[in-house]
Design brief:
It is built from eight helices and twelve strands. With 292 residues, it is an alpha+beta fold.
Length: 292
């Protein structure tokens, strides 16, 4: 086990592990850490903890010190510079007639460089743009292309559920999502119903997928024949949360059709065979549905 202090660089962002210093930390405290980019300001999420050796990349970089009032003022000034930096950069993009959408920018804590994030439908030749920006900001310029899911993660938004997007608030890492998850949960495959603001499959499809995949092994299939206390019938609806099945029972002698709800354990049905390994075609179909 290795002793660590967990920090994040953005609100709701991924937690990174650093070796604790000699000072005492508390959750929410600002600290200065040593990163590959140099010294950076971060917020403590895990003051002290221990993790397995295989979950870290050795050697761990360390927490340099607790952030001072001057450090916090530097971070504040960097944030205040962003609107003007975005405006100037957008003007330069339009000047060079580049097909790219400026998303955000980030000034390094030590003022050595500024990173601009953008999205574009194809590769962009921004060499002349970098020259212009270097003359304006007089520091190292880095332009980083990001995908549509990362764009929404940065700018945020309100999802169909009425809450802020998961990727921008409570999901440090973007998860793999496939169309099979929607099928497993019995959801409509209408793209407008299962797509997020990014136009890709909603991240929340993965939240309950394991439960539905497991529950699906213990319920009959839609349209299958089952035996109930009232006789044989056909499954017309399945509620996997209540583990309840609605069955259509037809009495031909009385020319009568009735519908009954039964708990799964009250009916008899043929258990599905263990699914075979997915074919390459099926996997290919899923891969096409995985957001970038």
């Amino acid at each position: 086990m290795v002793k660590i202090t967990g920090v994040t660089f953005t609100n709701g962002g991924k937690v990174y592990y650093f070796a604790p210093g000699k000072e005492k930390y508390s959750k929410g405290m600002g600290v200065i850490v040593d990163t590959a980019r140099g010294l950076e300001y971060a917020t403590v999420i895990i003051p002290y903890g221990e993790v397995d050796d295989d979950k870290i990349v050795s050697p761990l970089k360390s927490v340099v010190r607790i952030a001072t009032a001057r450090d916090r003022e530097t971070v504040k000034k960097n944030e205040e510079r962003k609107p003007e930096a975005m405006r100037l950069t957008q003007e330069k993009i339009e000047k060079h007639n580049l097909d790219m959408k400026l998303i955000d920018c980030d000034f390094a804590f030590d003022g050595s460089k500024v990173v601009f994030f953008y999205s574009a439908p194809s590769r962009v030749d921004f060499r002349e743009l970098v020259k212009d920006l270097s003359a304006v900001f007089r520091m190292r310029i880095e332009l980083r292309q990001i995908g549509i899911r990362d764009e929404i993660k940065m700018i945020g938004g309100i999802g169909a559920c009425g809450r802020a997007c998961c990727c921008a608030t409570c999901m440090p890492d973007l998860k793999k999502v496939t169309i099979k998850m929607a099928k497993t949960q019995g959801l409509s495959l209408n793209p407008s119903k299962i797509s997020g603001l990014c136009g890709r499959l909603m991240c929340c499809l993965s939240y309950e997928n394991d439960y539905y995949a497991d529950a699906g092994k213990n319920v009959p299939k839609m349209g299958s024949e089952v035996t109930t206390p009232e006789g044989k019938g056909t499954v017309v609806n399945i509620n996997m949360l209540k583990m309840q099945v609605r069955v259509r029972i037809e009495d031909k002698k009385k020319d009568l059709v009735t519908y009954h709800d039964y708990p799964v354990e009250a009916i008899k049905f043929k258990r599905a065979a263990k699914p075979e390994k997915e074919s390459e075609d099926e996997l290919a179909e899923e891969v096409k549905e995985i957001p970038d």
